[in-house]
Write a structure and sequence with these properties.
3 domains; Jelly Rolls; single chain; 9 helices; alpha+beta; 8-stranded antiparallel sheet; Phage tail protein beta-alpha-beta fold
């Protein structure tokens, strides 16, 4: 991890030479541990973006040459807060927690978890079935009077088992969800919110701050933060299709499809701005990355480039 952070710092500083980039590519290609560490450092740097006054959009092509001051500031904050938390500073821990960093870092120690590109389902002691999407994790706390899951990262689909004596709840950093005998999907957004989609019966949401609550009925979905509920909308079937290994695109943009694919793939994947808004329709296999790219190329005026197995860019097809 230290090597990944060192390479990230150099490449984003603007001082990297061609020789540096060649050595970085050799290090990255040396094995899965290097690739995993690099992907983690990239994710961590992205999570600090909300703390910046100026947004830092990611360029879709030639990422190695896109170093700028916003990323440098983000990196400084990253290691500064990490150092405070690591040294036992209460301030550092509080800031880290408010920034949404605690749960992802604890995810690898959760009771149930998946790695990048993995999906699995588990049956809990009461018969409740839980499907975990890629890079997801939750803790389980079953007591005599309560059944509780704590979603640490990613996304889960839940089919609850009946138990009149013990309520079933799911907690995130943004609130508590109480199942009213139901099938529902919960997802943590990268931008600091929770998304709930209900497919059977209903779920009651109670926000973490202020205690505001509402009931979301079957066929509805809603996004919420710790202190705000957004308007409900029709439940998106795609929020359930992933559990069957399907990426269901219903008028999604190419950028949105690529973002979903990126959750199931280690490495770098980016889409050029001039094709990012192309509309995508259809069903695509989550477990066949290259097959999905081929299908997209056949349906859209795009070209996929993979100079390395873990580096993918999508751009407009040459005329």
């Amino acid at each position: 991890m230290e090597q990944a952070a060192t390479w990230f710092s150099l490449l984003q500083s603007g001082n990297a030479t061609d020789a540096d980039r060649t050595r970085w590519q050799a290090w990255l290609a040396s094995g899965p541990e290097s690739q995993t560490a690099w992907a983690f450092v990239e994710r961590v740097s992205q999570r600090f973006a909300p703390l910046q006054a100026v947004p830092a959009p990611r360029l879709a092509a030639d990422a190695l040459h896109a170093a700028n001051q916003r990323l440098a500031k983000r990196r400084t904050l990253l290691f500064g807060f990490a150092a405070m938390a690591g040294s036992g500073s209460l301030l550092g821990w509080a800031v880290w927690q408010q920034a949404g960093w605690v749960d992802p870092l604890l995810a690898r120690f959760a009771d149930h978890h998946t790695g990048a590109g993995e999906r699995r389902d588990v049956v809990l002691a009461d018969g409740t079935q839980v499907w975990l999407a890629s890079a997801s994790a939750f803790d389980q706390d079953y007591r005599a009077d309560l059944r509780r899951l704590r979603l640490r990262s990613g996304e889960i689909l839940i089919q609850t088992a009946a138990d009149r004596e013990r309520p079933f709840v799911v907690e995130t950093a943004h609130g508590r969800l109480r199942a009213l005998g139901t099938r529902f999907n919960v997802r943590l957004d990268d931008d600091g919110g929770t998304r709930l989609a209900v497919y059977e019966d209903a779920v009651e949401i109670t926000l973490a701050h202020g205690g505001q609550s509402t009931v979301v009925a079957a066929g509805q979905q809603v996004r919420f933060t710790a202190d705000r509920l957004e308007e409900t909308a029709a439940a998106d079937p795609a929020r359930e299709a992933w559990s069957r290994g399907i990426l269901l695109a219903q008028e999604m943009s190419l950028a949105q499809v690529v973002a979903e694919l990126g959750r199931y793939r280690r490495g770098h994947i980016a889409v050029a701005p001039d094709v990012a808004d192309l509309t995508v329709l259809g069903s695509y296999p989550l477990d066949d990355f290259n097959g999905t790219l081929t299908m997209l190329q056949q349906a859209l005026p795009i070209q996929v480039r993979q100079p390395l197995p873990w580096w993918t860019t999508i751009e407009a097809r040459a005329r």
